[in-house]
Amino acid sequence: MSATYFPYENLYNLVSHHIGILSRFDLQQTSPFSLLFLRLENRNQEEIIRSMEDILRDSDAILVDNENYILLLPSTDKEGVETVISSFSDYYRKIFNNTFVTFPHNGNMTRTLLNSLSKKIASDYDKNIIFTREILY
Question: From 79's CA, which of 4, 89, 100, 102 has a CA 20 to 30 Å away?
Answer without folding.
Answer: 4
